Sequence to fold (296 residues):
Amino acid sequence: MATRMFVNLPVKNLKRSIDFFARLGYEFEPHFTDENAACVILGPDNYAMLLTEKFFATFTPKPKSVVDAERGTEVLVALSADSRDAVNAIVDKALAAGGRKAREPEDYGFMYGRSFQDPDGHIWEHFWMDPEYLARPGRYGKLEYAASGDRDLVITRELGASRERVFEACTKPELIRRWLSGPPGWTMSACTVDLRAGGSYRFEWRDEGGGPGMAVGGTIREVAAPERFVATERFDQPWYPGEADVAYSFAEKDGKTTVTITVRYESQAARDGVLQTEMPRGLAWSYNQLAMLLAG
Fold:
């Protein structure tokens, strides 16, 4: 039976926990990382899921409460299965052997799961996930991206906050510094934004490991707060040829805001080259940091 193990741990401060494990040298799986959880890659097919206490509580049956790890110990063990039938088979066996149902089955189409409590009350999650869902191009966790036309790249990410708050977080230097700091081990060393048509911006990052840094800047062409702003983009150390025009739009519905970023490159070759890089993965990481900032 091929199995991937996910050990689920409740944490009080998700960003603090991410920073801690990043300093230990661990990387994170962006498909399973957002404002509610972070997936630490421990090794081949072994992961630690760091869940906010509020999110962790959604997986535990009442009247159980989340244990304070300073006073007691509790985890959720999640094991993958090869199919829906395999999930049902193992959980049905557990229930027949005297286990108790932990909560109702969950079916999201691409993922199916059931859980049970063993005789001591420990919770075991068994789940199946469609491998084609994970392998689908154009997605890293909640961030989606796709080529459009000859030169454009369109990126979208939904965030759980009002349009005004998201717009501010994307345009105010004191907020940008808190989420656009780069991958683990990097810091934003400079951040300036003159938010007006004809204004400019500049971001600089430093690799704390001593490697070469990175910097980008451009001219702000249009501002219509909180709906939209447009700016140029040029890196000091070019990793794609020339300059790009970047349009940000913010659409709110039911208290959530979808950010749509449309990047127009100077050529199709430049756009296609970007799609072959780790840029989408890095951007997914940054927007997960933004989601945590907005979640407060």
